[in-house]
Protein 1
Amino acid sequence: MPTIPPENNRPSLDEVFIDLLKSIALEETAISHLLNAEAEKMQAFVGKELDFPTCPSNEDIINFNETVSQFVDVLVMKEWLLLRKLENILRAARKQTHHFECEEE
């Protein structure tokens, strides 16, 4: 396995794992904001009294539903990618821990 020589400014492996986990947390925060904005858009479309204040046609409602469905599909795919990213980070961390344990023996 190739090794990378240490440098003064290079982060440790632990710092890299932490940064990767933070990146997942930041993406999850962004997704929560997107979901909240979509929920507010839906509430405005449907109305607080469920009276459709903009008087949309049936076609408008169908188009709106399709847009929401596409949005949710994209978020589900993004969540799947974040899950894979987390699993890969955890797998790499376990391998690194195992590698250090073997070196100590």
Note: The radius of gyration is 23 Å.
Protein 2
Amino acid sequence: MTDHKPTRRDLMKPVQLLGLAFIAALFAGVVTLVSMGAFQARPAEEIQRAIVIGAIAAGVTFIVVLVSVALLLLAVDPAQVSKQVDRPLLVPQEDEQTAASDPKDGPETPRT
């Protein structure tokens, strides 16, 4: 097995980012259209307004999801992706090191 270090390009995979953003935008657009009654028997001007607002909601959702996921991926260090973690993630390293170096076998002796 090779020691392949993922590059930033491997992590981002632009087609997957665009696909995720497009699916979220499509979902937001359809939900907006349904909630505004675009698929019901309504006057043409109300349906047209619903389509415009649905397109705006889809566009905003596309941009927000794309930027958010890209910014989250920038926080990932490519060298840390394949590294195995054997400690709790929320415990600071210095607390863990002091606990490991100072094991207490029994109760503390009382001070006089």
Note: The helical segments are 8-12, 14-35, 44-74, 78-81, 93-101.
